[in-house]
Amino acid sequence: MTSIGTGYDLTNSVFSPDGRNFQVEYAVKAVENGGTSIGIRCKDGVVLACEKVITSKLLKAGANKRIATIDRHMGAVSSGLVPDGRHFTSRAREEAASWRKVYKSPITTADLAGRMGGYMQAYTLYSSVRPFGVTAIVAGWDSELELPVDGQVGSGPSIGSGGKAKDKKYGGPGLYMIEPSGIYWGYYGAATGKGRQTAKAEMEKLNLAEGKMSLLDGVKEAAKIIYVAHADNKDKEFELEMTWISNLEGPTKGRHQEVPKELLEDAEKLAKKALDGDDDDEEETKDENKPAEADKMEE
Amino acid sequence: MNHLPQSWGRPRDDIYGAYDHSYLQSNGPNQHTQSPIVTGTSVIALKFKDGVVIAADNLASYGSLARFTDVKRLRSFADSSIVGFGGDVSDMQYLDRLLSSLDTREAYCSSGHSLNAQNLHTYLAKVFYKRRSEFSPLWNQVLVAGLDAESKPFLASADLLGTTFSAPSLATGFGAHLAQPLLRKVAPDEDAVAKLSEEEAVQAVKESMKVLFYRDARSLDKYSIAVVTKAGIRLKEDEKLENQSWAFADKIRGYGTQVN
Amino acid sequence: MSAMFSQNPLMNGPNYSFNQAPSTAAAGNKEHGFYPYTDNGGSTLAISGSDFTIVAGDTRSTSGYNINTRYSPKVFKIGGTTSSQDDATLVLSVVGFAADGEALKERLDAIVKMYRYQHGKPMSVKACAQRLSTILYGKRFFPYYVTAILGGLDEEGNGAVYSYDPVGSYEREQCRAAGAAASLIMPFLDNQVNYKNQYIPGSGVGHALVEREKIPLGRTEVEDVVKDAFDSAVERHIEVGDGLQMFVITKSGIEEKYLPLKRD
Q1: Which GO terms describe its biological process (chain B) (predicted)?
Q2: Which of A129, B182, C38, C85 has the CA that lies 20 to 30 A from B251?
């Protein structure tokens, strides 16, 4: 960042001569300091997980959730400035609700990502505002059935095609990541925050693009990844928070919900076990399994 | 001047004839809905010891025309309550979407707490009362079936004026005349409810639906029926009335082949 | 709105709830408009004694000839700090349009609660009575279609009853009946509580007649008067019946009593 100090980084919406918006880049820095958040797109659902850094022992365990429900079929998690994440959530909820008001059907994950991408991009354009200090991951399950319109009362003609296309495929899992610049892409596996590099490396090993990962495996992998990625943030304690959205036949019936306690604990146990194994292999010099001890305290 | 205050400020009846009150309406606050358009007929419901049975037929009428014959008038809420709608169908659809958005908003905080039927009824009654006070009523009478805060069976009514009441059995529209007496025979009070089994309750409700089909000209033999208990909702939306006997109609003028 | 004011059955027919739409047909096409009121029948009654007040009401709710339910209370404790209203000191009865009654009750309850939180003491009946009048008059041009009666104990500990019309005109009274059977119960109360038209037998003729001594009724007597009043009203008015709910307010708290009435 050689151009720092040239004055082009002091206000939003101004380009530097070499075509950069420094305010956006600084916002990305804020994200890079935040706890790790990830999303995994599985064949029958999507998982969101985050490393919630405990800022004080006086905070109630399990309270102050970081993964939010946007609509019944959609959730979001963000890394970076928590209040900015809250505002992101609030705006996303408004977008989802207004979509329903207009179209009488749930917003798709892609559409929500588009709306939010546009919203965040607008915060790079004006000198009166600053960019969002968060990168958000949005996950949703778009119904695989032809959804009834909200409030629909009948089921249409019982003979003939009834206006329905035969064998048409609908919906499926959706996972998008939106950055402070407003850029957004769809992902098989998304990661952001302090441990993103580690998390990305782990996710690449999973061959998510093949679309074979089941949701239950996704939950286990997500827990493992958050624990592995926590190595980048070892001096702080954390809580693992995880939500999921399954298909309509699955455990959440297309709804965004917290991963049930037992399942989460199982996944956490597996994650710790895997981590201990790694530690034994690689770094025996580390003072006797200290991380495992520290981890126990969070429960 | 007349000594009756209510005639002050109005033209004298003995000179101008009876005062036309309808004139006042165009002068008053804005009125929106003047009457319902596409309507559903009765909803009936009965409490039993572990829950509530509720039923409504699948017809939406346009005046005397049987306009839509596949209309689901029992709407579920949060997988734990059923709202049965009588009256205007478009207002029902509006309320259904309103409840759906309420359910979504409730899911924002993942406390595990959810609104029960009693909460839902209070909410609906306030919506109705607010709208009637704005002279823009939602033209429905609804029955809310589910469980209250103590997980005991809950059944209550709310209507376009915001009027609310609760009873062991309830029926809207024509059902209030035809079905309610039959249901009250089965469950005259809460003590009787505590002894009533699910089978008996379902039987009584199905029997009442049949009577309503016999006598309500705006009814249909296809209906929806739901049982709400602690275990959740069992909603069947494509039921057909069984074992009808039209023998009674034989001697009634207008029913059989003999018209006059 | 004339049905609201006139209690004269010869003029309006019996005061059934379904008679309120204008009965005189207008000339030309008339559209069926929305009428925001209905009458849910029922009757209420309050009597104050030297150190107690009784507020009572039947529990039937009607629409036309239909009984909505046999248990829909019209009498409520007001201004307690808990949902059970255990520490309430005031009782409000509302009869007429039940939805307005409910709304009025909720509003007054919230106001009296706020008063208690802000002043650190329960509201007096006198203050509450004035406040209730203000609330009712606030909707002077779209009234709460209810007849309210407020009961409690005044600053001296004497029973207090305040009665209202739908737009907030009020006065403190010894006793008051309201609702569908008000015209049946009120004269009975005049006679039995205030000893109207009761003379000492053989005391004279015309102006020489001596009135019976006016001894204030005790609590048990008043309870009996209330029961008799409702039993009689049930016999003669179809919108009254099913159950009698009674709140007895004394300095030691509010006692609730429920008695069955005829369900026919």
Answers
A1: proteolysis involved in protein catabolic process
A2: B182
